[in-house]
Amino acid sequence: MNGNFQGKAGIITGAAGGIGSATARRLSAEGAQLLLVDRNEVALKTLVDEIRALGGECDFAVADVSEDASVQAYVAQASNTFDRIDFFFNNAGIEGPMCSVLTFQEADFDKVIAVNLKGVFLGMRYVLPIMVKQGFGSIVNTGSIASARGLAGSIAYTAAKHAVLGMVRTGAADLAGTNVRLNCVMPGMVDTPMLRKIIHETFDGDLNKGLKGMGSVSPMHRVAQPEEIAAGVVFLLSDDASFINGVALPIDGGTLATIPYNG
């Protein structure tokens, strides 16, 4: 690792998940100080212990990103601990039920929107004023290939991810002249606990069949590993991406570029 984040500090939400934890490990290895945020306290503490054992500097906050007070608290913790927020990986999300719009329940819709859309907005809402005041900062939101096209059986997830892309583009325009950058990544199918849960529900628990089936939508003929998504996130957060703003970066093995998703 090249140490691009020496002396820098930031926040990762959804830190205990597949993409979040891979990004935390990568950023820590490059010298970043981290506040790791997740609602899963056990998994979060395990990750923190792992990073600290390797010499990394990190703290943690157990939080519900869909609750205003909870978001304010983790942002204040980061600001007070580090006295700055250089970067923010606004990553927390849930998949929701896999079912048709004909049977999707209102309560499930509200829950997915609360985490995947409202949670992203609230994170931006409280981190951005700090970044604007300090005169620098970089945020990466987690979108999805579902930010760019429909995915059958995931009406709430797709709606939220479309909106995340809209917030990135609008937010970048709102932040003109502030030296704060706002981008998002659009992962395709990634081998994470979230994807494995979907495979369990839709491929009768056959993991190999599920990974092969999910990977078949990409011309790479495989799903991504979390570390491959983390590499794109870390690049966008870094000074190497200093003139990249308002961008949605597909990290999908070419899925959006070449193969229409057929549901």
From TrEMBL:
Keywords: Oxidoreductase. Pfam families: adh_short_C2 (PF13561). It comes from the Bacteria. It comes from Pseudomonas hunanensis. This is Oxidoreductase. The keyword Oxidoreductase applies. InterPro entries: NAD(P)-bd_dom_sf, Sc_DH/Rdtase_CS, SDR_fam. GO terms for molecular function: oxidoreductase activity. The keyword Oxidoreductase applies. Belongs to the short-chain dehydrogenases/reductases (SDR) family.
